[in-house]
Amino acid sequence: MESIDYGVCRLSVVPVRKESSDLTEQVTQLLFGDHYEVIKPSKDKKWLQIRIVFDQCEGWIDSSQHHTITKEYFDQINLVDFKITTEVSSWILYKKNPLSIVMGSIVPIAASELFKMEEQFAFNGESKAMSQRRDFEYIKSIALRYLHSPHQWGGKSPFGIDAAALMQMVFKIGGYSLPRTLRLQSQAGKKVNSLAETKPGDVAFFQDKEGKIVHAGLLLDEDKIIHSSGRVRIDHLLEEGILNHETKIYSHALSVIRRIL
Fold it and tell me: What is the pTM of this model?
């Protein structure tokens, strides 16, 4: 479907909904710097259906939270290796006004000055180049920064995040691209045949009684896993699934393990 407009998120966090109503579920979020294509407006023009470039996820945003950019600027964003923030929260100076942004935001500052940017920014917080791929220890350190973040369906910030977004954001900051949904994530990378063959940094996926993938977590050292269940937490991973270290009850049944790194 051809785009009718182009946009980039210029707010800290913007909800992206399943339908053109605040009453429908949040399917994902835009963080500062996420750019997208506008597919169509709602009949009353109060909502815009968008497609996020990074993961092709589609949904609806409030039109008052849309920030239009030109096709030229949109194409520039696709080519430039911008910085991604690595602090839980930080500040950016945007058009001479301070704005709080969260970890995983994209700041339009790059080593390359080949392209003329249309906006004025200043940022001196912690960040790294988006394309720079890092090892497990770095990815683990990013995952631990989300520890105790509350679970939020469709959320992808340190102040509310779901299981799929935790995997996507941790790897995105580490320089790797993962889809937004658990189903597609469970097909990424290479399959690990057994728990005995896993390495720290592998991603474990879990299924319900019907065999549907419903959860995921990042394997750490010593059979531990970090995942978003109620909050981002660390539990034990065994053949039977995730063993909650507090209740000693298995909470999720293991389905498949994939190697991304």
Answer: 0.93
